[in-house]
Amino acid sequence: MSQPLLVKSKLICVALNDAAQLKQLDATFNEKPYGKPPTEPVLYYKPRNTWAADGATVEWAVDFDGNSVDSMVVGASLGVVIGKEACRVSEDEALDAVAGYTIVGDYSLPEQTYFRPDIKGKCLDGSAPVGPVVAEVATPNAVEVIISVNGAEQSRFSYANLERSVETLISKLSYIMTLQPGEVIAVGFAGERTPVAPGDKVELSIDGIGTLTSTLGAKG
Amino acid sequence: MKHARILLGGQELEISVDEQGNVTDGAGQDLSIDLNSDAITWLPPVKEPGTIFALGINYADHATELAFEPPKEPLIFIKHANCLTGHKQVSYRPDNIDYQHYECELVAVIGKSGKNIKAEDALDYVAGYTVCNDFAIRDYLENYYRPNLRVKSRDSLLPMGPWLVDTADIADANALRLTTHVNGKMTQEGTTKDMIFNVPFVIEYLSKVMTLNPGDMICTGTPHGIVDCQPGDVIVCEIEDVCALETRMVSEQEYYGDKY
User: Fold this and answer.
1) Backbone dihedral region of A151: left (phi > 0), alpha (psi from -120 to 50 degrees) or beta?
2) B residues 134-173 near A, CB within 8 Å?
């Protein structure tokens, strides 16, 4: 709790931006309730109660009956930190609005459906660590995002596989809402989320930015 | 007591209005102003907006109107302060769309932090009530995290106010007449009695998942009677004993000006 929070005003996450995952889910997305694959970025918020700093503990979630849940998962993304107001910017201008890059963790219940906003799964207190620093990244569309659990690598996602680039997402978002300094966009998670267990030490790493470390709490 | 935020003569003021209609500033000084004066610019009533929770399909008749089964648990989506604007301000209609409608809604504003709040204690956590117009653009709906951000997170499309009424001043938030008028003609009439999930239920539900904090808001959904709105339309969303919120629609070009 000693470290200040890095995010200001909002943390926007982009789901389904792993091209391989989209391809894999194509048949599902052509059925009910989806009807057709998404035509625009699929977005969700991690609200302010979820924000946490590097080194924090992520509470193990309880269900509506007060019992500890069976499974939780983590996703990791490059976090684009907005440095100046961006309203209706083109893809060419998009990176001018960026102050730097960080790492965003999204701890949640397993993603079972994308049909409705996932308040129960995604809005858990302290479930969105952001950090450890804001750094410059020369080629944001070419990073690798690595998830290690208790020292063993579990996931490695290359941004060569992004469905939409950082520039495209900033531009599209800036036509929905005016982006403000301090806001963070988590631009892409590996389609397959990584399971975690109570007590796990989880490290999310991007070369050039560093490692964002969290520890999972015990079952209540 | 009612509480509002206004700009007057270039100054931001927090004002209170008592039952006799006396207006005072934050220091308790009498302000001799007419609340209908054009000199007032109304700001959104919550000074430090937090997470805005909005309910979808939370009136049985509206669910029927949209051809949905009434939900078994609340459909809740999240919005942020970029959507907010005040009373007598403008909201925009994007170019090249067919259907944008208002949604007149009762809003509960959270006044203190809490987690695992019981429904019977929930109103202790509510600072007051206001009215919002949670506009939607049906053309942009997609079946991914529906209603998606492209529909529900746009600048200016959540007018709110003009003021917050103390929780204690509303005896029963689920017995209030709700109307919307477009250009003076009534287009929506309902009552908060028909809400499926009321404020205490939603507070208990949300606070099982997360901590609620002061400045968070719960927009409780709208009943039957939505119609398309065009630039130039003046929309008034009103809830009995709470307030009447007026919004003028403008085009995307007029709203964004130089940035269009």
Assistant:
1) left
2) 140, 142-150, 153-155
